[in-house]
Design brief:
The structure is a single chain. With about 230 residues, the protein is of the alpha+beta class. The chain folds into two domains: about 150 residues, Jelly Rolls; about 80 residues, Winged helix-like DNA-binding domain superfamily/Winged helix DNA-binding domain (Arc Repressor Mutant, subunit A, Orthogonal Bundle), CATH 1.10.10. The protein is about 45% helix and about 25% strand. The protein contains nine helices and eleven strands. The strands form three sheets. The chain has a four-stranded antiparallel beta sheet. Helix 1 crosses helix 2, helix 6 crosses helix 9 and helix 7 packs across helix 8.
């Protein structure tokens, strides 16, 4: 058991939420944490399930999504290693507002709500980090709502690609880590429409696609499309 906790503490030290924590605190967190593994397509939790804790991706990716009454899937987020999800449950103690499903073989660390609240009461620094992450998540949701309600699909795609450029250290050659179908769902459209927009961007010299690899050739034009000041 001690060896298992030590290995888990080492994993925890890699998460942004726990960076800077001393070994003693990491051991305390590891003592109440659980390492859970999921196969591709396996449900982590469903919308409406009791929000009894939160997760942090250690390996693989997870999608957070909602289903319409007709069964149409709207992807809200895709999270990878180091990123938390379901964390609203820690503060609200209510049911999960969306569903989570492993996109590939995935490993996640789970911490129950009661255990984590006890930890943050003794370590205010954890509270500040969690609030910072929640603030960032709220800003992303605000952008998502704005995009889906006010912007057309080319603008949404342009903003997504610019975010990917920033996330991949401003490299103009980016690798899409989700399928075109999943990207279409994330942007609130259908795969056929998304393919036509990619083709239009490529025909106008904005980018070049090669499978999942996208090379951005005209950043200023992509920014103008994202802002809605340019149309193709």
């Amino acid at each position: 058991m001690r060896k298992m906790n030590t290995e888990l503490a080492a994993k925890l030290a890699q998460f942004p939420l726990f960076t800077g924590q001393n070994p003693e605190m990491l051991d305390k967190i590891a003592a109440v944490a659980q390492l859970r593994r999921y196969q591709r397509g396996q449900s982590v939790f469903c919308e409406g399930d009791a929000g009894n804790g939160f997760y942090m991706v250690s390996k693989g990716r997870v999608k957070i999504f909602k289903l319409s009454s007709e069964g149409k899937e709207q992807i809200l987020h895709v999270f990878g290693p180091g990123e938390p999800f379901g964390e609203v449950a820690v503060f609200e103690g209510r049911s999960f507002p969306a569903s989570a499903e492993a996109m590939e073989a995935m490993e996640a660390v789970f911490i129950g709500r009661a255990d984590f609240i006890e930890l943050i009461q003794k370590n205010p620094g954890l509270t500040l980090k969690m609030l910072s992450m929640l603030s960032l998540r709220l800003r992303i949701f605000a952008h998502l709502i704005e995009d889906l309600s006010l912007k057309d699909v080319p603008s949404r795609l342009a903003r997504y690609l610019l975010f990917a450029v920033e996330k991949q250290k401003n490299s103009q050659k980016i690798e899409l880590d989700i399928t075109r179908g999943q990207l279409a769902s994330l942007l609130g459209t259908i795969p056929e429409t998304l393919s036509r927009i990619f083709s239009r961007f490529q025909a106008n010299g904005v980018l070049i696609t090669n499978g999942n690899e996208v090379t951005i050739q005209d950043i200023p034009m992509l920014e103008a499309i994202a802002e809605g000041s340019a149309k193709l």
